[in-house]
Structure formats: C-alpha cells, structure tokens
Amino acid sequence: MLKTLTRSFFLASLLGAPAMAQETSTTPTLSQQLAEKAAGFAKQAPAERRATFAKGIDVVRVSGVEKLAKQVGDEAVDGTLKGWKGDAVTLSELWNEGPVVLMWYRGGWCPYCNIQLRAMQQSLDQIENAGAKLVVLTPELPEKAKETAEASGLSIVALHDKDLALAKQYGIVFELPDAIAPMYQSRLPEYNGNDAMELPLSATYVINSDGKITYAFLDADYKKRAEPSEVIAAVQAAAK
C-alpha cells in the first residue's frame, strides 16, 4: 500500500502524470532562481518596504528559531496528515520504508515557495531514484493547496499541517514581527483558516529509516531554500 502511495497521493506523488524532465546543466539552480526573484523585488519595491522586510528577517533570526528547531541527529517527530482528497499519511510508515524528505512551504501567495515547489518537482525523479519519498507540508487549507498546485501547473498534492501543529513540534514556527504582521492580516486567515499571525520557516529535513534527522535546512530568510542537489546528496547518504 505504501509503495502505491509513493506516486499516487502526497506531494511526493505525480498522480500518474508523466515524469518531468530532470534538470539539465543549463537549468538555473534554485538558488539562482530565488536570487533573481529577490533582485526583481529589490529593484521595484519602495525602499521603505524593502527595509521593513529586511528588518523582519533580522527579528526572526534574533528570535533563535533556527537554533531551537529540530537539528541533525534529533529524532524526527511523527504525525498523520491529510491531503485535499482526505487520504491520511503517517510519516513513520513512510520513513520505515526508506528516507523521507520533509519540506514545508508557507503558502501559494509566496512567490519564493512556488519557485521552490517547481524546482523540487523537477528533481522528484532523482529524489525517488535515490530511494526517498518527498513529503511537502503547508499550513494552507487543502483547497488552497490544490489551487497552488494548479496555478503553477504542478501535478502534486500537499499535506495539510493544520494550525502548524507538526511544524510547532519541529520548532520551526515563528510569530510574524510587528512591522510585518499587518501585511498578512487578510492573507493568512484566508489561506490558513485561522487568525494566527504565524508562519513556518521554509525548512527541509531528510529523515532516515531509523527516524533520525540526517539533514536540516533552516534559514530565517524566506528567500533562501534548500538546493535540490544538496537534498539529493543527503538522501543518497541517508539511504546507505
């Protein structure tokens, strides 16, 4: 049953869609794509807005969330989550079969998240060929997560981390800084179905078959994400 899930359910699944082409040497890295997006924002946004977001990143970093979160060597936290079709997935059942890549994205309203999602889907075959399953989680309501996938042409399903319950157990949740929170007061309730001004770090973990974290990407800067090639290398190491 779990092998069937590999390509038929969660965000690590392509739902029977044709395999996407793997990245070529001419394809920009995820870091390059994110940097290009950030440069475009810096060029167009007013100086005050740029400064506000930069200060917000600093506040999140000073909070210590990066260091307080689960780290390499820690036991992974188990959980059972559902996608928009209502099917339940228990994480430990997946990592008992082999390594799991666990990745959070903030929401479809976040352009950096959408860039990351597309890059990870392009790398999905390589991740699976290395023996792992990719599981992506989001605080977005299931119907919003479906819209996110459809808007970017992704044939993938995200698991709903309701009220960021699992993310909180991993220690990756932070409250939006006061200067930033007003910009999200209408957005987050609409997407997440609650009034909490909270977001997860855009964290990526690799968990081995013993339920141990062997790779952790944790950065307070939402413009920084785990590079797929690094994740693949971490998966290959965890599968040995």
From TrEMBL:
Pfam families associated with the record: AhpC-TSA
Catalytic activity field: a hydroperoxide + [thioredoxin]-dithiol = an alcohol + [thioredoxin]-disulfide + H2O
Enzyme Commission designation: 1.11.1.24
PANTHER family: SLL1159 PROTEIN, THIOREDOXIN-DEPENDENT PEROXIDE REDUCTASE
Positions of the Thioredoxin domain: 70-240
Name of the featured protein: thioredoxin-dependent peroxiredoxin
Source organism: Allorhodopirellula heiligendammensis
Entry GO CC: cytoplasm
Protein purpose: Thiol-specific peroxidase that catalyzes the reduction of hydrogen peroxide and organic hydroperoxides to water and alcohols, respectively. Plays a role in cell protection against oxidative stress by detoxifying peroxides and as sensor of hydrogen peroxide-mediated signaling events.
Extent of the signal sequence: 1-21
Similarity comment: Belongs to the peroxiredoxin family. BCP/PrxQ subfamily.
Keyword Oxidoreductase included in the entry's annotation: yes
A GO molecular-function descriptor: thioredoxin peroxidase activity
Biological process terms in GO annotation: cell redox homeostasis; cellular response to oxidative stress
SUPFAM superfamilies to which the protein is assigned, alphabetical: Thioredoxin-like
Keywords for the protein's UniProt record, in alphabetical order: Antioxidant, Disulfide bond, Oxidoreductase, Peroxidase, Redox-active center, Signal
Gene3D superfamilies assigned: Glutaredoxin
